[in-house]
Amino acid sequence: EPAVALAKQTLERDPKAPLAAVMLALDAVKRDKPAEARKLLSAMGEDAVGRIAQPLILAWLTLEEEGLDKAEAAMKPVTAVDGLKPLVEAHLAMMEELSGKPDAAAKRFAGLIDGDHVTSHMIELYVDLLHRQGRDADAKEVISRFRSQTNDVSNSMADALESRLAQPAPKRPLVDTPAK
What pTM does this model have? Predict the structure, then answer.
């Protein structure tokens, strides 16, 4: 893949290049090489990308290896960055679901969409979770609230989400690895 090759070249020139390290770490995750991913992440610089991406990816790796409590603890550095609490909460909701706690995940997503920092991706993840739980009426309510934001982007996204509800629910969540 050209992007991976470019990231390798960039990292050879600058061993602390954060975007290259993130790209190669995610590639290692896709190839089921968590130790390689951890090594790349540990060598990252401390810029904004490193302060956010590194702990998030490490938390996802920790989830698989050590469980939800340790994964949550691994995200603490991101929580300290002003304004990123909704991002952390969204990741925790996804992790809760993968850890067999879909009700806790749904509750966390419900709290997120009541906040000021809701994104279309959070809505998409929440609707996906509700649909897989067989809670399509609740999913439609979430979409209706999202649609009330009345702009072209939210309306087209709401249309796409409604069409997904007409399909059988997928077995796996939209996001189930740090590479997604």
Answer: 0.86
